[in-house]
């Protein structure tokens, strides 16, 4: 396994296990540089969203990164998400086109419903299915969906989501949701895998990290991968972007995996998908 290793989604589309997230990265040079740096250093997956307001910068970074790395658009896997205000059939179709234009791309690899906004996500999903059937997006999925949201969604769906991107880290291990998604052939992807930096001074993780001469971030990313979770750590610093990708030269033991699982407190840094008001 290496930085370009992929997992086949339910429809056979191959998605890299490890990518770069750009949540809360300011649009403009900061975003451009992070994306360009990641691609130059071997990343092939970039995750953004309409609400991050940095799709334009991501698009420029993609273009510059492709040139630097000597690859083509086909080598990359680009994800964006439709925001709550744009959920609805026509609205979602329109929002997709806006994202595509900002990114300067003619298709997306993955498009996600960002949050399970009650009464809104089913119409949006119909639009996603249409975009998928028309070949404008290679895979479709959801973000922040709990089990009951997923069950509700496919009462009326033709296509099951291929991805469920959720907050997931050692303080929020989401074991029940992961098991359910695996049974349904939905690939789980972790956002905020490092708990926005809150886990970096955890003594148990530090102890494991020092054994392998790795950082706590690398240990957490490795834990994700060994749990068959796609992960998208965010960084804007080149040395961190590189460091986050250097996780393929060690393996955590079963005991260490259990120990990290044991840090779970069902503790979120982001909103609760069952109780949000945006």
UniProtKB/TrEMBL annotation:
Residues 18-264 form the NADP-dependent oxidoreductase domain. Belongs to the aldo/keto reductase family. It holds the Pfam family Aldo_ket_red. GO terms for molecular function: oxidoreductase activity. The active site is at residue 52. CDD domains: AKR_AKR5G1-3 (cd19157). Keywords: Oxidoreductase. The lineage of its organism: Bacteria, Bacillati, Bacillota, Bacilli, Bacillales. Transmembrane segments: none annotated. Substrate binds at residue 114. It comes from Niallia nealsonii. PROSITE patterns: ALDOKETO_REDUCTASE_1, ALDOKETO_REDUCTASE_2, ALDOKETO_REDUCTASE_3. It comes from the Bacteria. This is Aldo/keto reductase. InterPro entries: AKR (IPR020471), AKR5G (IPR044500), Aldo/ket_reductase_CS (IPR018170), NAD(P)_OxRdtase_dom_sf (IPR036812), NADP_OxRdtase_dom (IPR023210). The keyword Cytoplasm does not apply. The record marks 81 as: Lowers pKa of active site Tyr. SUPFAM superfamilies: NAD(P)-linked oxidoreductase.
């Amino acid at each position: 396994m290496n930085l370009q290793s992929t997992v086949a989604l339910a429809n056979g589309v191959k998605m890299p296990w490890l990518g770069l997230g750009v949540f809360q990265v300011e649009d403009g040079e900061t975003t451009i540089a992070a994306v360009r740096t990641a691609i130059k250093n071997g990343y092939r997956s970039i995750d953004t969203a309409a609400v991050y307001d940095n799709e334009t910068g991501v698009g420029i970074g993609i273009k510059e990164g492709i040139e630097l790395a000597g690859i083509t658009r086909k080598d990359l896997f680009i994800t964006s998400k439709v925001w709550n205000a744009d959920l609805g059939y026509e609205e979602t179709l329109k929002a997709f086109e806006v994202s595509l234009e900002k990114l300067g791309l003619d298709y997306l690899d993955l498009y996600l419903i960002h949050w399970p906004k009650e009464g809104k996500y089913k119409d949006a999903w119909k639009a996603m299915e249409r975009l998928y059937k028309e070949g404008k997006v290679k895979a479709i999925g959801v973000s922040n969906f709990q089990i009951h949201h997923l069950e509700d969604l496919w009462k009326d769906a033709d296509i099951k989501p291929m991805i469920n991107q959720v907050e997931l880290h050692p303080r929020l291990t989401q074991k029940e949701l992961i098991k359910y998604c695996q049974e349904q052939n939905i690939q789980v992807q972790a956002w905020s895998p490092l708990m926005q930096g809150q886990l970096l001074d955890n003594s148990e993780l530090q102890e494991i990290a020092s054994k392998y001469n790795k950082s706590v971030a690398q240990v957490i990313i490795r834990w994700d991968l060994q749990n068959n979770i796609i992960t998208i750590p965010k960084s804007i610093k080149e040395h961190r972007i590189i460091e986050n990708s250097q996780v393929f030269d060690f393996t955590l033991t079963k005991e260490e995996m259990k120990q990290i699982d044991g840090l779970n407190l069902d503790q979120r840094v982001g909103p609760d998908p069952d109780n949000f008001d945006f």
